[in-house]
Amino acid sequence: MRDKLLIGCDIGTSGTKTVAMDVGGNILAHASCSYGIITLKNQWAEQWPDVWLNAALKTITEVAAQVTPECIAGICISALYGGTGVLCNDKMQPVRPTIIWMDRRAEEESKWISNQIGKNVIFDVSKNGIDSYYGYTKLLWVQQNEPDLWKKIRMILPIHSYIVYKLTGKLSVDYCSAGNVGGIYDYEKHGWSDLMLGKLNIGADILPKQFFTPSDIVGGLNAEFSKQMGLLEGIPVCAGTVDCIAAMLSTAAVKEGDNAAILGTSLNWGFIHSRMPSNPNLISMPYCIEPTRLSYTYGGASTAGALPRWFLNNFLQNESADTYSQIEKEIIDQGIPAGSDGLIVLPYFMGERTPIWDVNASGMILGLSLRHTKAHIFKAILESTAYSLKHIIDTMTEGVDVERIVLVGGGAKSDLWKSIFADVTGLPVYSPQKAIEAPLGDAFLAGIGTGLLKDFCEIKNWIGFNAPVEPNIGNYEKYQRYFEVYKDLYPKLKNDMRALKELSLSY
To answer: Cβ(284)–Cβ(294) under 8 Å?
Structure first.
């Protein structure tokens, strides 16, 4: 059994990563590729599904070439939250680009749902709220604004389920991704809601009928793609799931109360529980372990993780590991203190989700003076993501005792960033030694699905944690005062943010 290998593939917002691992949790091969998103208008974000399909095929092929393909025992794929999902015609070809989670165009549709159906009705059914983040509001936008395309739709699949269909010819949807669509998912019955489908005029026949746990085997790798990727035909392919679930599993979150912060393009912090979700301002979905019993509830900051990349690309014209290291060195060499000498950034660069839920919210840098350098601004950006995390945790943790933060994603690679998270929250920050996040979770799910791994608790043997970064008490006390200013800014500027957006759209 030790020579059996498991492939985990995660299709993210800006790139795809794939790994091959043995059953002991050792990484034997990895590959990645990058791509962008289509932004035709302000606050629009979409991508053609075959960009993701080609990225998955490319990286799996590269990984397979680095190991013995005959040893590969299973494949599991996760993907970004696809919003609308892949909208397929009768030939299972996409009729338009997928409108992804980041897109905020469905504001009028969200207002219509709120007025005509009601927030309480939506929450009673789906245990989620009404917002243009959710897939069901985006589907309504397509229905209302592209009726000719809507008529061509014969199947709607999450992104990873579309890839699984291409690889196996089998239709599937996992409970986690279905729940993340919101609105049209009945959280108590764990299936599509006939009531909501009727109210939103979405036919049940264009949604996959069979629900799976993410680790369930959907089918075997077909001849076309096994030949293309250099793999054996018939390799089991799991149902897979949304990327935040796979990333959460990669932190060894296997029981109630486990929590973690996942820092990718966005920042999500959430925890595992068995109670019925009760807060419409948070996002809930079934978890990959016992999905009809356990839930993952989280708050998300839409662009917090993307801001350092945005700054480096737009103001230093270079986003690379060397550039990150150089500007962090400048921060340290200049002795820039907690609070960046009086700077606060609001990280609302594509509206915001938790806790303000405002599509009109916008980013801001407050406190600039001629003495501030690019290093000051960059540190203030890092601090803004930590303020955002603290804001989410404070909103969510009434009655929940949080003793530490487990941080995975890009931020977990930076000692400076981790120290800022620790200082702002006042909590020790732990990060996994294997910084591959969702692909590791995917590979583990493949191990469970194939029976090579017997218990979800075995993932603890796969993951070691670095020594925690402890908070500096002096910095924590200083950041508490900055955080109060941070929280106070949005309510004061909310109307101005809306006015600026309306002005930008009026020309």
So the answer is: no
**Cα 246 from Cα 106, distance rounded (Å):** 27
User: What Rg value do the Cα atoms of the chain yield, rounded?
Assistant: 22
**Distances from the Cα of 427 to the Cαs of 229, 257, 468, 470, 486, in angstroms?**
45, 16, 10, 7, 19
Return the closest-CA partner of residue 240 out of 218, 271, 224. 218
pLDDT string in tens for the chain (507-residue length): 568 999 999 999 989 999 999 999 999 999 999 999 999 998 899 999 999 999 999 999 999 999 999 999 999 999 999 999 999 999 999 999 999 998 999 999 999 999 999 999 999 999 999 999 999 999 999 999 999 999 999 999 999 999 999 999 999 999 999 999 999 999 999 999 999 999 999 999 999 999 999 999 999 999 999 999 999 999 999 999 999 999 999 999 999 888 899 888 889 899 899 999 988 888 999 999 999 999 999 998 988 888 999 999 999 877 777 889 999 999 999 999 999 999 999 999 989 988 998 989 999 999 999 999 999 999 999 999 999 999 999 988 766 678 899 998 777 889 999 999 999 999 999 998 877 789 999 999 999 999 999 999 999 999 889 999 999 999 999 999 999 999 999 999 999 999 998 998 876
Residues in the chain: 507
Cα–Cα distances (Å) from 462 to 249, 250, 257, 431, in that order, read: 11, 9, 20, 14
Q: Name the residue type at position 486.
A: Y
Question: Structure tokens of 431?
Answer: 């990060």
The amino acid at 441:
G
Element (DSSP H or E) covering residue 501: helix 473-505
| Count of beta carbons in the 10 Å neighbourhood of residue 228 | 12
Check: CB of residue 438 under 8 Å from CB of residue 78: yes
> Cα 35 vs. chain centroid, distance in angstroms?
16
CA neighbours closer than 13 Å in the CB half-sphere of residue 250 = 30
For the record, the structure tokens of 351 come out as 């509206």
Are the beta carbons of 471 and 422 closer than 8 angstroms? yes
Helix (H) / strand (E) element for 88: namely strand 86-88
Which residues share a beta bridge with 191?
186
Residue 134's contacts (CB-CB under 8 Å, 6 or more residues apart) are: 83, 128, 181, 182, 183
Long-range contacts of 435-438 (CB under 8 A, 24+ apart): 435/408, 436/17, 436/19, 436/27, 436/30, 436/250, 437/10, 437/246, 437/247, 437/250, 437/262, 437/264, 437/408, 437/409, 438/8, 438/10, 438/12, 438/17, 438/78, 438/243, 438/244, 438/246, 438/247, 438/250
| Residue in 38, 40, 44, 36 with CA at minimum distance from that of residue 13 | 36
CB 64 within 8 A of CB 56: no
Structure tokens that stand for 210 in this block: 């069979």
Kindly give the pairing relationship between strand 405-409 and strand 429-430: parallel
CA neighbor of 402 nearest in space, from 203, 260, 199: 260
Quote the DSSP letter at residue 402. Answer: -
